[in-house]
Amino acid sequence: MRDPFAWIPGDGRDAWFERAGVSLAKPIGWQGRAALLALMLGMLAAIPLSVAAALAGLHLAWTMVVLVLGFVAVPVWFLFAARGRVRVTSSVDARGTV
């Protein structure tokens, strides 16, 4: 099964992240840093916005919509944007150890 996040060189997309083996991916370009910043800010903004919505007297449904947007919609957008943009490098050194 193919990794949906693995970067294919002839695909026409730029690699935004790089990972070695199974380690966490790190951003390698400004697009990757911007996408990661958007993910963090989107999730971080959900908490104060939901508190503000509750204090403003909005219905509970609107507070839940804000939380769902921040904690579900933003990560789904990030995963959709990052697919096919993770360059996988070998993590094996000269001795053959990982």
- First and last CA, distance: 22 Å
Mean pLDDT: 86
Topology as H/E string? EEHHE
Helix content: 40-55%
The biggest beta sheet reads: 3 strands, mixed
**Extended strand count:** 3
The parts where pLDDT drops under 50 for at least 5 residues are none
Portion in beta strands: 5-15%
Helix-and-strand structural type: mainly alpha
Give the strand line-up of the largest sheet: 2-1-3
Q: Figure out the total of helices.
A: 2
Q: Radius of gyration, rounded?
A: 18 Å
Q: What's the shape?
A: elongated
Question: Layout of SSEs?
Answer:
Layout: E1 17-20, E2 26-27, H1 30-55, H2 60-82, E3 86-89
Parallel strand pairs: 1-3
Antiparallel strand pairs: 1-2
Helix pairs in contact: 1-2
Word description of this protein:
The protein is mainly α and 98 residues long. The protein has a domain at 35-87. The protein has 2 helices and 3 strands; from the N terminus they run E-E-H-H-E. It has helices at 30-55, 60-82, and strands at 17-20, 26-27, 86-89. It has a 3-stranded mixed β-sheet with strand order 2-1-3. Strand 1 and strand 2 (26-27) form a beta hairpin. The longest helix is centred in the middle third of the chain and has 26 residues, at 30-55. The chain starts with 16 loop residues before the first strand and ends in a 9-residue tail after the last strand. The mean pLDDT is 86.
